Amino acid sequence: QMADWNWRFGKTPQFSHHVETRFDWGIIDLHMDVQQAVITDVVIFSDALNVELIDLLKETLTGLKYNNGEIKGALAELAKTQLELVAQINDFEGWLVGEMEG
Description:
By secondary structure, this protein is of the alpha+beta class. It has a single domain, classed as CO dehydrogenase flavoprotein, C-terminal domain (Enolase-like, domain 1, 2-Layer Sandwich). The protein contains four helices and three strands; from the N terminus they run H-E-E-E-H-H-H. Strands 1-2-3 form a three-stranded antiparallel sheet, covered by helices on one side. Helix 2 packs across helix 3 and helix 3 packs antiparallel against helix 4. The mean pLDDT is 91.
């Protein structure tokens, strides 16, 4: 039973996670709502010139389990399909995972 993710994390209370940072390519102000350890809503405010990047990040994060492994994997897959955005996606992934680790 302890090995079952839903048993261990499915009862996690609802919470919001808000973090922000500045990259060379723009500011990211990230708000995530989490219910039962799943990211249910993502809002990103940014002055980045590439609006598509922000939309892709929101789409990618929404619905993921709130854990580093799942987020790393999803962002790595996104980077494979968005070759022109690899550097920004990698910046974002490294920062977000670091923030989640505390």
